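I am going through a labmate's work and have reached the protein record below. What it holds is a sequence and that sequence's fold in token form. Please read both lines and tell me whether the tokens look consistent with the sequence. Do not assume that whoever made the record got everything right. Thanks in advance; the entry in question is below.
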Amino acid sequence: MHSTDKIAILMAVYNGEKYIGQQIESILSQTCQEWELFIHDDGSTDGTIEVINKYQSRYPEKIHLIEGKSTGGAKYNFFYLFNQVEAPHYMTCDQDDVWLENKIELTYNKMLELEKSAIDKPCLVYTELRVVDAGLNTISETMSEYQSLDCHKQSISQFILQNSVTGCTMMVNRKLRDMLIELTDIDKTIMHDWWAALIAAQFGMTAFIDEPTILYRQHGDNSLGALSVNKFSYIIKRIWQKEQIQESMRLGREQAKEFAKTYDLPDDSFPARYAALEGKSRHERQRFYKENDMYKTGFMRRMGQVIWG
């Protein structure tokens, strides 16, 4: 177990040799220096470890490589990191982005503001992103526009249905982290950031900063990228993806069921009621969405939910 009295930045890496140096440099250039970086490699076969070792030797008090076996994927890697580090606040970090120099300062100030009105509650702050290509040329000024997301909708009913928190922008406090690692069946979750958002929405508070704090790099190798939902080709393809949409909704209900189970929520709680839609008819599910004004943002997502969900 590692511990720090500063902000713990958790970086999950796998074959990130090409971009990880630029990411680490952007963290080192932050206006706020009250942080330590904890990295866990998931079995890279390229030169990722060599790059990390170079930075670790130069900044031994700031950068730490956590030993451990391969976890098998990004969400497992991040859950592993949360379990390995104790800190008052946490940020999660991808290996191939670039942080704008005031990212930590802006996010941390908002977190401190949030915690003043949410004493001893789980808190989460997340921000806007600028979508860029492999060469850092701007594709879209904001992720919310690129993906037709409404990041200001932060109720538990909205987060149960659709996640708008991008993990590489978020900061969570110790209370949320402690609740996060209560989860025992990671397979039932969709992503670590989505689970964190559910905790904050159900038990604490969330805040969104509508200013980009990160260059979110899109390239052929990143495992989870941003896909523009406004492209005509996407719209045509998406509307016929009945099985994929239904499976996505099923996984969301399964996650809600695990959430209610993990935190022993009553049957009349919103997560439990949403999970109970599994096995119900389409008519019953659609009535539930309407009664709770529960619809995904983005025209095509909403159409997919209405037609197939």
